[in-house]
Design goal:
- InterPro entries: DNA-bd_dom_put_sf, MerR-type_HTH_dom, MerR_fam, TipA-like_antibiotic-bd, TipAS_dom.
- This is MerR family transcriptional regulator.
- Keywords: Activator, DNA-binding, Transcription, Transcription regulation.
- It comes from Oceanobacillus kapialis.
- With about 250 residues, the chain is mostly helical.
- It has three domains: about 70 residues, Multidrug-efflux Transporter Regulator, Chain: A, Domain 2; about 50 residues; about 120 residues, Orthogonal Bundle (Globin-like), CATH 1.10.490.50.
- Helix content is about 65%, strand content about 5%.
- The protein contains twelve helices and three strands, in the order βααββαααααααααα.
- It has a three-stranded antiparallel β-sheet with strand order 1-3-2.
- Helix 3 crosses helix 4 and helix 8 packs antiparallel against helix 9.
- The longest helix is centred in the middle third of the chain and has 33 residues.
- It is globular and about 60 Å long.
Length: about 250
């Protein structure tokens, strides 16, 4: 099998730009490039792309995927078995959350009773997809403090936490078109810094690093930009300015 980049993109359902990016960072470099500069993907390349996309579905960052698939100990069959296990766990959690939504709809219609515990079935704060990166950047102590505090919260406290979290993001989204260094922007980003420090001990350097991750990691960017396009970049810049001004 020999396919050009456009043919692979159409087959898989991803963009040509994504494939070019994977090539540029050394994640998926086709076995052959013609004299005219055309990338030619083999069947082996497609197998590797499948592995990469399974990891992406499980929210692995590209840097980590590259480390895994280029490791001398990488075993394709073993990895597929792991993919299946993790996806089944993800499906079970999503199914539980869908059932919670159905129960909540019935509860709001007055068709059933619902305990406080039932309202949060399916949420699993013990498996944070960003935990590995957080540990690497800021150390175990800060992560454990945040995790311990979150796990000790009651259902109502978790709901209050989420409400405050979303409120700050909405406020930031409203001013994202301003200069990140402006007084208004810095006042809003300070609320985010203080909020984070209610959960753990985030130094100014860690705060600045977190903002950088908002842009470097597509998972963060996607989630943050749901509040407003360009919010992740705005927050990164505002957080860096806030940290630098207070060093």
């Amino acid at each position: 099998m020999a396919l050009k980049v456009k043919e692979v993109a159409e087959l898989v359902g991803i963009s040509v730009r994504t494939l070019h990016h994977y090539d540029a960072i050394g994640l998926l470099q086709p076995e052959e490039v013609t004299d005219a500069g055309y990338r030619i993907y083999s069947g082996k390349d497609l197998e590797k792309l499948q592995q990469i996309l399974f990891f992406r579905e499980l929210d692995f960052p590209l840097k980590r995927i590259k480390e895994i698939v280029t490791s001398p100990s990488f075993d394709q069959h073993e990895t597929l078995t792991l993919h299946k296990k993790m996806l089944l766990e993800k499906r079970a959690r999503i199914d539980k959350m869908v059932r919670t939504i159905d129960k909540t709809i019935e509860y709001r219609k007055g068709e059933r009773k619902m305990s406080a515990k039932e309202k949060f079935e399916g949420f699993d704060f013990s498996k944070n997809p960003y935990e590995a990166e957080a540990r690497e950047r800021w150390g175990d102590k800060a992560v454990e403090e945040s995790k311990e505090k979150l796990n000790s919260m009651s259902g109502k406290e978790k709901q209050d936490f989420e409400n405050k979290f979303n409120a700050i993001y909405r406020e930031l989204a409203e001013v994202r078109h301003l200069d990140p260094a402006s007084d208004v922007a810095q006042e809003k980003i300070e609320k985010w810094y203080l909020f984070l420090n209610t959960m753990g001990r985030y130094s100014l350097e860690a705060f600045k690093g977190l903002g950088q991750m908002y842009v470097e990691d597509q998972r963060f960017t996607k989630n943050i930009d749901q509040f407003g396009e360009g919010l992740a970049v705005f927050m990164r810049d505002a957080m860096a300015i806030y940290a630098d001004n207070r060093k």
